[in-house]
Amino acid sequence: MKTLSCATYHDGLNIVEVESVFSRGLPGFNIVGLAGTSIKESTERVKAALNFLNFTFPAQKITINLSPSDLPKNGSHFDLSIALLIALQKSRKLDKIFVFGELGLDGSVKNTASLFSLLLFLSIQAPNSKVLVPSEIAQKASEIQNLEIYAVSTLNEAIRFFEDDDFRHNCMLKNAHPILKNVIEIYGQKYLPNSDFKLDFKDVIGQTRAKRACLIAAVGMHNIIFEGSPGCGKSMCAKRLVYILPPQSLDEVLSAAAYRSLNMQESDFSSIRAFRSPHHTSTRSALFGGGTSGAKIGEIALANSGVLFFDEFVHFSKPIIQSLREPLEDHCIHISRVNSKITYETKFCFIAALNPCPCGNLLSTSLNCRCSDNEIKNYKSRLSEPILDRIDLYVQMSEISPDDKADMSSTQMSQMVLKAFKYQKARGQKELNGKLNDDDVSKYCVLQDEANQTLNSAISRYNLSQRGIKKVLKVARSIADLDECELISKAHLMEALSYRTRGAE
C-alpha cells in the first residue's frame, strides 16, 4: 500500500490520506471513502491521462481509499494524487507530501477554483508542509510563507518529480509577496504593520473625544458606538479606524485571505485588516452565514480580526441586532445546517453609528428636532440592554464648529497603538484587551488601591452588571497601556467609565 496526502474543505479544512492497494481479482478501478461525484468521475480522467502516457494498467483490482472514510469529500483536485498512486505503485516508498491538481485527458495538470483557498488553510493547519501543485497556480502559491511549493505542468512531470531528485529540486519555487517582506518581529513573533493610510484621521475636523475613543478602541479591539447628528463624522471615524489597528500576525494575514476565498473573493495578502460594512437591508444569512445546504460564510465571520461596521444601527431588524449577542460575547459563531456544521471566529472590532432620533436633530444646537417624545423613545428602544451591555465605548459626537481644527493624523495614532501593542506583548498577553477571557481579566487588569475603591463606588452609581465591570476594566487596561502603566490608576478607570453608556454622559 502507498499513500499521498491531500485535503478537502468540509466544516473546515480536513487532511485526507489517499491510499492505494493492488489486489488479486477481476481488473477494476474503485474509489471508496465517501467520495463525491467529482471524485467518482476522476476514474475516467485518470484512465485517459495514464493511457495518454502509454501506461499499461495491471490485470489487478485497484482500490483507492480516501481516509478518514466517514468524512464527505469533493473536488477534482484529488485527480493527481490518485493517478500518481497508480503510476508509482511499483516505485520506492513515496515521500510525505501533499498533492493537488485536476487532470486533463491529455495528462495536463490544472488548477481548480478552490485550490488556493485550500492551500491557505493548509498553511495554517499544517505549516511547513511540502506541496505539489499545478504550475499555473504555483507562483501565487509560493507567496504563502510557510509552505514548501513544488510545481508541475503534466502528469509525466509529476511522475519524474518522485523518481528524479535533481528534477524535484528544480520544481521548487520560493517567491515572497512584496508586503510580506516588511514584517516586524515582536518578542519572537512576526507581524505585518500597516503603513498605507488611504483614509486619514487628519481629515476629521474636531471630534477630539471621538478620536480618543478610536485610539482606545484600536489598542484593545473594543466595540464602540457613535451617536450624533447627520454629518458630524461618525462614518468618517469608523472607516479610518481600521487603518490604525494593531499589526496582524502572519497567521491572521493568511486566515483573512482564506476567509475571503471562501466568499469567492480574490484572495491576496494585505497589511490592512478586514473592513465589512453591510447595509441594513442585508438578510440574516448574508450577515451571519448559512444557506440551504452548506454553511456558507457571512459578513460577521469575514470581519474576523478586523472591523464590522453597522451604519444606521437602529435600522437593522431586531432579530439581526439580537443575534449579534453571541458573536460579540463568545467571539465565535456557530452555523448548523442539515449537511454541515461549522464554527467561525468573530474577534472583530464592532462599530455602530446612529442618529440620536429619527430626524437626527435631537443634539443639534442650530436645528429643531421634529420628533415626538414617543418617537424618540421607540427609536432608542430598538437597542436592548443586553446589546448595549456588550459595547465597550459609547461616544456622543458634537456638531462641527468653525473653530474646530484637525489634530492627530493616522500615522501618529498608529504609532501610539503599536507602542501599546508591544507593551501588551511584553507581559505575555496573547489576546488583545477587548477579547480577554475572565481569567485573563483577573490576571492583567490589576487596579491600584485608589482605583479599586473608585470601581466599587461606580458599580452602584452606573448600575454596572458583571459584564459591564469586565468591559470597564478592559477599556481601562487599554488606556493604561497607552501610558505604559503596569497597574490601572484611578485616572485610567475614570476615563473608561466616562465612555460606558448613555447613562455615563
UniProtKB/TrEMBL annotation:
Lineage of producing organism: Bacteria, Pseudomonadati, Campylobacterota, Epsilonproteobacteria, Campylobacterales
Domain of life: Bacteria
InterPro entries xref list: CHLI-like, Mg_chelat-rel, Mg_chelat-rel_C, Mg_chelatse_chII-like_cat_dom, P-loop_NTPase, Ribosomal_Su5_D2-typ_SF, Ribsml_uS5_D2-typ_fold_subgr
NCBIfam families: YifB family Mg chelatase-like AAA ATPase
Occurrences of domain Mg chelatase-related protein C-terminal (ranges): 408-500
Protein's name according to its UniProt entry: Competence protein ComM
Domain Magnesium chelatase ChlI-like catalytic: 200-401
